[in-house]
Each structure stands twice: as structure tokens, then as C-alpha cells.
Design goal:
There is one protein chain. By secondary structure, this protein is an alpha+beta fold. Helices cover about 25% and strands about 30% of the residues. It contains two helices and five strands, in the order H-E-E-E-E-H-E. It has a five-stranded antiparallel β-sheet. Strand 1 and strand 2 form a beta hairpin. The longest helix is centred in the first third of the chain and has 17 residues. The chain is globular, with a radius of gyration of 13 Å.
Length: about 90
């Protein structure tokens, strides 16, 4: 239930920013993450986070990425693509 509530909230927030009604844009360019990509957190316990979707919103210069924690889909983070690109907090996991 918590996962579906979080997912519903994500859609409401992104739709209010971009004026879309349920359509999401997935970016597949070289450095932009794609759905299913995995990132490990460099600090703390090294948790692995999985990309659920990437959405471009009018209020942000960079697309936003919704991540869920591997083996804990009820935990979610929303970060900018720039956060994943600088590799300070996250590194691409293999």
C-alpha cells in the first residue's frame, strides 16, 4: 500500500509540474539513466537503488529520477540526473 501511495504521489507531483496527464518521458541518452539501472550509494551502508522512471519537469533544469531501494520497493528517493552524474553520492552498480 505504501508503494502505491508513493507512486500515486509521484505522478501527481510530476504532472503538476509538467502539465502532463500520466505520460512520462524516459531518457535513454548516453549519460542519462534508464529504467532498471542500478546505483549504489557511496556513503552510509552502500545501499543499491534502482531507477523506476525519469521525468523532465518544467520547474527543473535537469530531469528528475525516481529511485527505489533494491529489495525494499517501499523506500523511494527522487533525485536530479545531475546528482547521479557527479558520482559524489551515487555510483553506477553493475
Amino acid at each position: 500500500m505504501a508503494h502505491s501511495l508513493a507512486t500515486g504521489l509521484w505522478h501527481k507531483v510530476t504532472n503538476s509540474f509538467n502539465g502532463r496527464s500520466g505520460s512520462e518521458q524516459t531518457f535513454t541518452e548516453n549519460n542519462t539513466p534508464a529504467v532498471g539501472d542500478r546505483y549504489s550509494q557511496t556513503a552510509r551502508d552502500g545501499s543499491v537503488w534502482v531507477v523506476q522512471n525519469v521525468v523532465s519537469v518544467a520547474s527543473s533544469r535537469y530531469p528528475l529520477v525516481r529511485l527505489t531501494r533494491e529489495n525494499h520497493p517501499d523506500l523511494m528517493k527522487i533525485v536530479s540526473v545531475s546528482t547521479l552524474a557527479d558520482q559524489g553520492e551515487f555510483r553506477r552498480a553493475h
